[in-house]
Design brief:
This protein has five helices and 18 strands. The protein has a seven-stranded mixed sheet with strand order 6-5-16-10-11-13-7, covered by helices on one side. A five-stranded mixed sheet has the order 8-18-17-14-15, with no helix packed on it. A four-stranded antiparallel sheet has the order 1-2-3-4, with no helix packed on it.
């Protein structure tokens, strides 16, 4: 089953299930399963099948989506975590994951228009699969890490490459407003099957730029969770963004960055398609 956050009847924020082109309201304005998708994750709603009985429905077409989890406590991102991306960057093999953080208020919604920062000349896409944490976990082992995964979603780790390269610290280049599209769907881990067989693809204006199996991750999901929770505890609703494959614009010949009007689509097996259009920053004078 796929779940989304969106505006329901009367323009009220809600969440619900997606089936056959329709959204079933499971939030306060619907059947009241939980106030938000984050609350549903936190309370363990997805440990068993969720009933759609009595939930009001609306067509997905024409619905305005919200960021899947609009207020995650932490958004932890893993860099250079596919062999194809490591090779195109020319980085040496790492013994530990590369970790950086996103601010929670940078997440954006499926279908939302994304401004290219006025101060950025090198705005780039990074299609990724994100993990949504479902329980408090600290100092996990490989054996306990899987139990913390509530489910999966798509993420576009939009990157201001010029700002990312100002110094050795990536924070400025990874935290411009609305630079983290997140959605459209959350899929519980029990519904995903073999995660290593998930195919991730990024398209820009219909052209395939990235294509990889999750099996190609350098540090797999248990290794990521084990490493991250060795230095910080994670809570329900926290997000780990697992890394991007080779094919980013910065390493094309010649480098090709996003421009107003470009449409970026990120698709993965079972997770739907995250689609956003880039626009000029309205503050650009």
């Amino acid at each position: 089953m796929q779940y989304a956050s969106f505006f329901g009847s009367g323009g009220r924020p809600t969440w619900g299930a997606h089936t056959d082109g329709f959204l079933h309201d499971l939030g306060p304005s619907g059947s009241g399963v939980a106030p938000t998708l984050k609350d549903a994750v936190s309370s363990g709603v997805f440990a068993s099948p969720v009933s759609l009985a009595g939930a009001p429905t609306q067509p997905e077409d024409g619905t305005t989506f919200l960021p899947l989890i609009h207020n995650p406590g932490k958004v932890v991102c893993i860099g250079v975590n596919y062999r194809s991306h490591r090779e195109e960057t020319g980085r040496v093999e790492a013994t530990h994951p590369t970790v950086f953080l996103r601010f929670a208020d940078t997440v954006a919604a499926h279908g939302q228009q994304i401004p290219i920062p006025a101060v950025c000349q090198m705005y780039d896409y990074e299609g990724e699969v994100a993990i949504v944490i479902g329980q408090h976990i600290h100092q996990a082992t490989r054996d306990t890490a899987w139990s913390a995964v509530s489910g999966y979603a798509l993420f576009n780790d939009l990157s201001a490459r010029d700002w990312q390269r100002h110094t050795g610290q990536w924070t400025p280049g990874k935290n411009f407003p609305a630079s983290g599209p997140f959605g459209p769907y959350f899929v519980p881990s029990s519904d995903m099957g073999d995660i290593d067989k998930v195919v991730l693809q990024t398209r820009v204006n219909g052209e395939i730029r990235q294509h990889a199996l999750l099996a190609d991750l350098i540090f797999d999901i248990p290794a990521i969770i084990e490493y991250v929770t060795a230095f910080t505890a994670l809570a329900p609703g926290d997000v780990i963004v697992t890394g991007t494959p080779g094919g980013v614009g910065a390493f094309m010949e010649p480098p090709t960055f996003l421009a107003p009007g470009d449409v970026v689509e990120i698709e993965a097996t079972g997770l739907g398609t995250l689609r956003n259009t880039l626009v000029a920053d309205s503050r650009k004078g």
